[in-house]
Specification:
The complex is a heterodimer. By secondary structure, chain A is mainly α. Chain A has five helices and no strands. Classes of the chains: A mainly alpha, B mainly alpha.
Chain lengths: 131, 134
């Protein structure tokens, strides 16, 4: 189970780099379904696991000249203010409700990705497109 | 496969700069922070489209979102840690392999459009969502 979790962690990292989503959204189900954590513990642990992934991802994107540091700072600071509200909400909701909400969120992300894949113009243009 | 051209040394230091307003950016962060902590995700799915609406180019939005999420995730993990909900061993087990995976993923993103891959990922996520629902 540990090996499977580590492999899924690696895959989640590749997908996170590729699509800009996929770190947490794969960490949480891996922690719940493979390692047997509760939904709240999985979400809390996922946030810690995301940290090294996004730091490396941001560094790589910076090397490609894709980071607006001023915007990142303000969005990051704004999010710090919002985080406690999210934690309280997650801890207040019953475990089952939170897991189902997360499942619905996963389905919405899946629909968003499918739409990105199927529509005529890619949402994240390749380097050669005008960005 | 052609290796993508890197930014010049000057570009390396400056990256991109948008003129999105500070309040707009803080508001995006606030929404993303609630969302991120509620679901234990980074919140890129919320941040990236909102940054595009705020005027950032799509590729810059994905890069900027990753940088912003480092603050979001640190704050979220800290807040949950005060409740004793974080399992550091499990986080290391998946987080450290993911760190190496993301290097490959970002490099691949510069090279491939990968519609089939995107659609495949969408189907996989849908399956995960259904598995969690039932």
């Amino acid at each position: 189970m540990d090996v499977l979790a580590a492999v899924l962690g690696f895959v989640a990292g590749v997908l996170a780099g590729l699509f800009g989503v996929g770190g947490g959204i794969l960490f949480v189900p891996t922690l719940v379904l493979v390692l047997g954590l509760t939904q709240v513990h999985a979400e809390a642990t996922s946030l810690l696991a995301i940290l090294p992934t996004v730091l490396v991802g941001a560094w790589r994107q910076h090397r490609y000249g894709n980071v607006d540091w001023r915007a990142a700072l303000f969005v990051g600071l704004g999010s710090v203010a919002g985080v406690e509200g999210g934690v309280q909400l997650a801890k207040t909701l019953p475990e089952d409700t939170l897991r189902r909400l997360f499942a619905v969120f996963t389905l919405l992300v899946a629909a968003n990705l499918a739409w990105r894949a199927l529509r005529p113009k890619p949402a994240y243009p390749s380097r050669n497109d005008s960005a | 496969m052609k290796r993508p051209r890197r930014q010049s040394r000057h570009g390396l230091l400056t990256g991109v700069a948008s003129d999105a307003s500070m309040f707009r950016l803080l508001a995006i962060g606030l929404v993303a922070g609630v969302f991120s902590a509620l679901f234990g995700v980074g919140g890129g799915i919320v941040i990236v489209p909102l940054l595009v609406v705020a005027g950032l180019p799509a590729r810059a939005a994905t890069g900027t979102s990753l940088a912003a999420i480092s603050l979001t995730a640190a704050a979220g993990a800290t807040a949950y840690a005060f409740h004793g909900d974080v399992k550091p061993g499990a986080a290391a087990l998946i987080g450290i392999p993911a760190m190496f995976g993301v290097i490959g993923g970002v490099a691949l993103q510069q090279r491939i459009a990968g519609r089939t891959l995107t659609f495949g990922f969408a189907l996989f996520l849908a399956a995960v969502g259904i598995r969690l629902l039932v």
